[in-house]
Design brief:
Elements: E1 15-16, E2 23-34, E3 49-60, E4 63-64, H1 77-86, E5 90-91, H2 92-95, H3 102-116, E6 124-133, E7 136-141
Parallel strand pairs: 2-5
Antiparallel strand pairs: 1-4, 2-3, 3-6, 6-7
This protein binds zinc ion.
Zinc ion binds near residues 34 and 49.
InterPro entries: 6-PTP_synth/QueD, 6-PTP_synth/QueD_sf
Pathway: Purine metabolism; 7-cyano-7-deazaguanine biosynthesis
Cofactor: Zn(2+)
Length: about 150
């Protein structure tokens, strides 16, 4: 094995993926309360209640960088901080200016990620998945962007 080659034989930073599509994902979690409007009388989601929310962020890139990364997971720290500061142990009805459904929360988080995190990382957002329970989730998939 020569000194400037990785064990796989490709030089650092030029690992074209030759048609393969690779994604990474990271999970984040927070606890919050919400209440949904516009529902029939007696609907359980119309009452104030809480969830242990789980947020998954999925990223891709056309090429890997550094040692073979889409994005160093450590570079997602600003997103973790935003979730903690803005959502953890809060009432989502007070935090969001839209109805706090999983769907609209996923869209909100995707927009924030694209505006605040994506410019500083090599990867690009594929989707944000928001889960309120172990059995349910909403996925906001990002359309192709130039
Ligand atoms: Zn709920």
């Amino acid at each position: 094995m020569s000194g400037h080659q990785t064990p796989a034989g490709a030089p650092h930073g030029s690992d074209g993926l030759n048609g393969f599509h690779v994604e990474i994902s990271k999970h984040f979690a927070f606890e919050a309360a919400h209440r949904l409007g516009g529902l029939p009388e007696g609907h359980q989601c119309g009452r104030h209640h809480g969830h242990s929310y789980r947020v998954e962020v999925r990223l891709t890139a056309d090429e890997l960088s550094g040692p073979g990364f889409i994005t160093d997971f450590g570079e997602l720290e600003p997103f973790a901080a935003y979730i903690k500061q803005s959502f953890d142990h809060r009432d989502l009805n007070e935090v969001l200016n839209v109805e706090p459904t999983s769907e609209l929360l996923a869209v909100h988080l995707a927009r924030w990620f694209i505006e605040h995190v994506e410019p500083a990382i090599p990867g690009r957002l594929v989707a944000v998945v928001v889960s309120e329970t172990a059995k349910t989730s909403a996925t906001c998939t990002v359309s192709e962007r130039k």
